TrEMBL record:
<keyword id="KW-0436">Ligase</keyword>
<keyword id="KW-0067">ATP-binding</keyword>
<keyword id="KW-0535">Nitrogen fixation</keyword>
<keyword id="KW-0547">Nucleotide-binding</keyword>
<dbReference type="Pfam" id="PF00120">
    <property type="entry name" value="Gln-synt_C"/>
</dbReference>
<feature type="domain" description="GS beta-grasp">
    <location>
        <begin position="17"/>
        <end position="113"/>
    </location>
</feature>
<dbReference type="InterPro" id="IPR014746">
    <property type="entry name" value="Gln_synth/guanido_kin_cat_dom"/>
</dbReference>
<dbReference type="GO" id="GO:0004356">
    <property type="term" value="F:glutamine synthetase activity"/>
</dbReference>
<dbReference type="InterPro" id="IPR008147">
    <property type="entry name" value="Gln_synt_N"/>
</dbReference>
<feature type="domain" description="GS catalytic">
    <location>
        <begin position="120"/>
        <end position="456"/>
    </location>
</feature>
<comment type="similarity">
    <text>Belongs to the glutamine synthetase family.</text>
</comment>
<dbReference type="InterPro" id="IPR036651">
    <property type="entry name" value="Gln_synt_N_sf"/>
</dbReference>
<comment type="function">
    <text>Catalyzes the ATP-dependent biosynthesis of glutamine from glutamate and ammonia.</text>
</comment>
<protein>
    <submittedName>
        <fullName>Glutamine synthetase</fullName>
        <ecNumber>6.3.1.2</ecNumber>
    </submittedName>
</protein>
<dbReference type="InterPro" id="IPR008146">
    <property type="entry name" value="Gln_synth_cat_dom"/>
</dbReference>
Length: 456
């Protein structure tokens, strides 16, 4: 199940004095946990039914500034409440915080108590329902990469995020010796996430100094998205308690590898027992259903790229020769590809989307991949032949949008996403993307000052 702690167990733990705080959290548009810390006894007595929050939380930018122009929430509408409805199946102990439990809440309309359509969790739940209606379960796994620094967030801020000391001084990709030096944080992260009901398969060094990758056991799409956001939040909290800092920026340093969030995805039967992508007699052992799913993701990749790369910085990661993709194509086990077929010849066969950065919101990313995959099935698309070779050098291949501005406009014109998500939902996130671009366009960067203060 999603959590590791039943409501009855919570009541007993509160009675025994083992739990005194419950975090009731929604997921905001940026994929962050936002909510309230409840006195545990009050949560057990009353707030487990519902609580409330200001609806600007899903109409604000990453700086928590209310953004003008949203239909769903605005100053003219008074920024009223929405309902935060705890999903008690997500209840879990949080070992890295003293006497604390956490629950993820759905966001409901204050008047009719229906899912708020533009909330990230509701968007994913709608796509999961579309799968369920066809007899499918979508299994997902997102790999998360991040940089670990021998700095606190305060010391990094004082240095203006320049010249930071990484946990290791050189690249230690897969190297056990160098990653042993990082075990103070990484061992806690693996073990305490496991204790919180988030099964960790492994961690490893990545292709940057102090860069890490942590891999969570695959799960049904909603549960995996819940795991993803709790892991990101918990990783920062654990690092902070160890006097360290973690960054999930897609590209924190021009000269170093970016942070990705590769997303593995496949369909299984409704009972979760039969893999629907595996066909030992099919080409690449990928069933017709799997081929159509993959073809849909390829066809609509430009239209949903924003859901995988939502910030200006996200597009700095797409650089040739860095293990980040630049082209929209698929290959068999080829890390230059935007999409890679994994597990060929086994029941674990799946598509890996390599476009997303660690800054994505998993609910939005998973929902977009499901919508595109279902479009491929509905349209009975034929999967093109796999690309062979170095995709970075293949000029004939379609490119991933190079900028936030490009990705925003393809999103704005996507009939497929409008049909899958609803017109108002797409408009909400197009507005989000355009605000991010507007904020960047009017700011003065360190690069501009360095280049032009004297020389212009």
């Amino acid at each position: 199940m999603a959590g590791n702690f039943s409501f009855d167990q919570l009541k007993q733990a509160v009675s025994n004095g083992e739990i005194d705080t419950v975090l009731a959290c929604i997921v905001d548009m940026q994929g962050r946990l936002a909510g309230k810390r409840f006195l545990a006894q009050y949560f057990v007595d009353s707030a487990h039914g519902e609580t409330h929050g200001c609806n600007y939380l899903l109409a604000a930018d990453i700086d928590m500034e209310p953004v003008p122009g949203y239909k769903a929430a605005s100053w003219s509408k008074g920024y009223g409440d929405f309902v935060m409805k705890p999903d008690l199946s997500t209840l879990r102990r949080i070992p890295w915080l003293e006497k604390t439990a956490l629950v993820i809440c759905d966001v409901l309309d204050h008047h009719d108590h229906e899912d708020l359509a533009h909330s990230p969790r509701a968007i994913l739940k709608k796509q999961i329902q579309r799968l369920k209606e066809r007899g499918y379960i979508g299994y997902f796994a997102s790999e998360l990469e991040f940089y670990l620094f021998s700095e606190t967030y305060d010391s990094a801020r004082r240095k203006h995020w320049q010249g930071l000391d990484t946990a290791s001084p050189y690249i230690g990709d897969y190297q056990i010796g160098i990653t042993t030096k990082e075990e103070g944080v990484m061992r806690r992260l693996r073990n305490e996430m496991e204790a919180a009901g988030i099964p960790i398969e492994n961690s490893k060094g990545e292709w940057g100094p102090g860069q890490e990758e942590i891999n969570v056991r695959y799960a049904e799409a909603l549960e995996m998205a819940d795991r993803h956001v709790i892991l990101k939040n918990g990783a920062k909290e654990i690092a902070h308690s160890e006097g360290k800092a973690i960054s999930f920026m897609a590209k924190y340093n021009y000269g170093l590898a970016g942070n990705s969030s590769h997303i593995h995805n496949s369909l299984w039967s409704a009972d979760g027992k039969t893999p629907l992508f595996f066909d030992k007699n099919a080409e690449w052992t990928l069933s017709t259903l799997g081929q159509q799913w993959a073809a849909g993701q390829l066809k609509y990749a430009k239209e949903f790229t924003w859901f995988l790369a939502p910030y200006i910085n996200s597009y700095k990661r797409f650089q040739a020769g860095t293990f980040a993709p630049t082209k929209i194509m698929w290959s068999e086990d080829n890390r230059t590809a935007g999409f890679r077929l994994c597990g060929e010849g086994t029941k674990g066969i799946r598509m890996e989307c390599r476009i997303g950065g660690a800054d994505l919101n998993p609910y939005l990313a998973f929902a977009a991949l499901i919508a595109a995959g279902l479009a491929g099935i509905d349209e009975k698309l034929e999967l093109q032949k796999p690309f062979v070779g170095d995709a970075y050098q293949a000029s004939q291949l379609p490119e991933i949008p190079k900028t936030l501005r490009d990705a925003t406009e393809t999103l704005a014109n996507s009939a497929m996403l409008e049909q899958a998500f609803g017109e108002d939902v797409v408009e909400h996130y197009v507005h989000t993307a355009r605000w991010e671009q507007f904020e960047y366009d009017r700011r003065i960067t360190d690069w501009e000052l360095h280049r032009g203060f004297e020389r212009y």
